[in-house]
């Protein structure tokens, strides 16, 4: 967050501290919701820690592949970036939804890059079809991160036919299945 015109250094630091606390509270609330909904054994989230600093707006996530899919037992990882446009300080505005990026994969079988998937751009950005451009603040603060995590897992396993954004993904079903198997082979089996 950049310093606004006319804002003192002290005001800027207070605003940043408030945002960090707000996102940390949102993180804790999401952890509780995952436990209460029995999803904590399927989805794991952590606040990003890099260069000796916690960034409460960026969460690392892991989830296990669905047992009925080619990804059964595999671990899928990425980040949920909540550096949103808008402000969580006011209840009458809309905010842009968080962004989800999947991690690059480097595997012994030669897979090197972001997951090849119908809903993943070449830079790892995951398109979640159900997210609107702007979302009501109250939903974001109360339920949104957990719902977003559930949607990430759902749309990873069930790509939307109407929202394929990866133009390089083949249309042929046999070719799609081959790409999914190659991705599954490249994914790790680490614990959540």
Mind explaining what this structure looks like?
The structure is a single chain. With 192 residues, the chain is of the alpha+beta class. It has four helices and nine strands. The protein has a five-stranded antiparallel β-sheet with strand order 1-2-3-5-8. The chain has a two-stranded antiparallel ribbon with strand order 4-9. Strands 6-7 form a two-stranded antiparallel sheet. A hairpin with a 2-residue loop joins strand 1 (43-50) and strand 2.
User: Rg, please?
Assistant: 18 Å
Q: Approximately how much helix is present in the residues?
A: 25-40%
Number of helices: 4
Fraction of residues in β-strands:
15-25%
Structural class: alpha+beta
Q: If strands are numbered along the chain, what order do they take across the biggest sheet?
A: 1-2-3-5-8
Shape: globular
- Distance from N terminus to C terminus (CA atoms, Å) equals 31 Å
Order of helices and strands: HEEEEEEEEEHHH
Main β-sheet: number of strands, strand sense, barrel status? 5 strands, antiparallel
Rounded average pLDDT: 80
What multimeric state do the chains show?
Answer: single chain
Total strand segments: 9
Which regions are unreliable across 5 or more consecutive residues at pLDDT < 50? none
Features:
single chain; 192 residues; alpha+beta; 5-stranded antiparallel sheet; two-stranded antiparallel sheet; 4 helices; 9 strands; globular
Summarize this entry quickly.
This protein is 32% helix and 21% strand. It is of the alpha+beta class.
